[in-house]
Amino acid sequence: MSVIFQQARILNPLEHLDLTGTIKVADNGEIEAVVFGNQTLAASPEDRVLDLRGKILAPGLFDMHCHFREPGQEYKETLESGSKAAAAGGFTGVALMPNTKPVIDSPLGVAYIRHHAAKLPVDLEVIGAMTVESKGEHLAPFGKFRSYGVTAVSDDGTAIQNSQIMRLAFEYASNFDLLVIQHCEERALTVGAVMNEGLFSTQLGLKGIPDVSEAIMLSRDLLLMRYLEEHKLHDPLRRPRYHVAHISTKAALDLVRKAKQDGLQVTCEVTPHHFTLCDEDLFLAELKGNYIMKPPLSSRENREALLEGLADGTIDVIATDHAPHASHEKECPSDQAAFGIIGLETSLGLTITELVEKNVITMSRAIELLSINPRAVMKLKPLLFAVGEEANFTIIDPDIHWSVDAGSLKSKSSNTPFLNRPLKGKAWGIYHKGKLHESEAL
C-alpha cells in the first residue's frame, strides 16, 4: 500500500522548496513521485490518501541533544518511552548523550543502544563520552567509537576542566572527524549553585551560577582550537569541529560569533526553554523544581541576546536537552532539585509560538534549526524530497492551538515548566521507516 501526502506545503530549505505539492511514497518507504501545484497523483483502492491542505510536510525533525536514561535510570525514561515522546513531538531522529549508568564510554554501550533501537519509530544516534566515565581524566576510545558509526563525543553535564585533556580531546577527535560537543561550565564558579546569579537568586536565598562561567570555559576551548590550527593541525581534513551545547548567554554568543568570523569550525545550539524563559520566571513560579536546569535560566538581557542570535544566524540548532526526572526529584526544595527538564513534546510548539508567530524567524528558518542544521552538524545524511529517496517526513499543523497536559505526555516524566501553557503549532505525525505514525495514535 502506498501513501499519498496530498496538497501539503512542502517545505525543505535544503532544496529551496516552499511549494504546495503532493508526494507519493511506495510501500517500501521510498518516494515514488513528487508533483507541485494542483497536479494530482493517481491512487489505487489500496492506497492511503492524506489530505494535508493547511499542513506542512517537512524533512524529519532531528534533536541532537537528548537523555533517554537507559541504561541505568529506566524509572525516568527508557529508549521506548523516549522514542514515543520524540515521535509525538515530530522528531524522526534524536542523538543520545552518554551520561547513562554506566556511561557510554565504550563500543559496548553503543552496541546496546543500537540493538534496542532497531524496532523503535525514530532513529537513535549515539554520542560517545569524551573521557572514561566522563571523569575528565582519560580519553575514551574515539577510534573504536568511529568504527561503530559514532560521529560526536561529549562529556555533557561535566565539562572537561583539565586543559591538557581538552587539548588531547581536540587532537584525537580531529583524527577521526568526530564532533566535540561541550557543556561549557567553569565548575569552580558553580559548586553548590542552582540558578542564575543575580537579583532573583539573592531574593530567594539560593546560591547563584554566574553567567560568566559559560563564557570562561568556551573561551578556553576556542583558544585551544586556535592554537592547534595555527601550530599543530595543518591538514585541512584534520581541523577540530566544536559544538557549544545549550548556549545561554550573550558573552558566549559573542565568542561564537567572533570564532565563526575567524573561520573556526564552531557551531552552537539553544534550547526552547532558554529562548522562552528567564530567571524571573523561576522566581515567580510555584513549583520551582521544574525551572531548575543547567545552564540555568539566565537574565532577560541574555534571553534577548539569544533571540538575536537566532535571527542573525549565529545559532545553528534548536535542541531540547530532553532530561526526564521523576516527580520526587523535582517536587522538593529548590537547592535539592535535579537539573533538567523534558522538551521533545513542546519544542516544535514553543518554536512556532515564541519565534515564528512573533516574527523572530520564518518557518523556513525554523525547519533549518530543527531538522537541516542538526543533521549537517553531526554529518548525517541529508533529507531530500526526490524520487528514490527514503521518505523521512514530519507533518506539522502550524495553526492548531493546544496546551501542554501532563496526562497526554508520552514521556515517562512530566518535569516541564510549560504544563498548561497554551501553544500554537504541533506535529500531526511523522512518516519514517516505512510507517506513518500519527501523534494522537502514538
Structural features:
single chain, 442 residues, alpha/beta, Urease, subunit C, domain 1, TIM Barrel, eight-stranded mixed β-sheet, five-stranded parallel β-sheet, 18 strands, 22% strand
What does this protein structure show overall?
There is one protein chain. The protein is an alpha/beta fold and 442 residues long. The chain folds into two domains: 108 residues, Roll (Urease, subunit C, domain 1), CATH 2.30.40.10; 318 residues, TIM Barrel (Alpha-Beta Barrel). It contains twelve helices and 18 strands. Strands 1, 2, 3, 4, 5, 16, 17 and 18 form an eight-stranded mixed β-sheet that branches. A five-stranded parallel β-sheet has the order 9-10-13-14-15. Helix 4 packs across helix 6 and helix 6 runs parallel beside helix 7. It starts with a strand and ends with a strand. The model has no long low-confidence stretch (mean pLDDT 96).
Number of strand elements? 18
| Overall average residue pLDDT | 96
Nearest-angstrom radius of gyration? Answer: 21 Å
CATH topology value of the largest domain? TIM Barrel
Shape: globular
Put the structure in a nutshell.
This protein has 442 residues and is an alpha/beta fold. The protein has twelve helices and 18 strands.
Secondary structure blueprint with pairings:
Blueprint: E1 3-12, E2 17-25, E3 31-36, E4 48-51, E5 56-59, E6 61-66, H1 79-88, E7 91-96, H2 107-117, E8 123-126, H3 142-147, E9 152-154, H4 163-175, E10 179-182, E11 195-196, H5 199-204, E12 208-209, H6 212-231, E13 241-244, H7 250-261, E14 266-270, H8 272-276, H9 279-284, H10 300-312, E15 317-318, H11 347-356, H12 363-377, E16 393-403, E17 422-432, E18 435-438
Parallel strand pairs: 1-4, 1-5, 6-7, 7-8, 9-10, 10-13, 11-12, 13-14, 14-15
Antiparallel strand pairs: 1-2, 2-3, 5-16, 16-17, 17-18
Helix pairs in contact: 4-6, 6-7
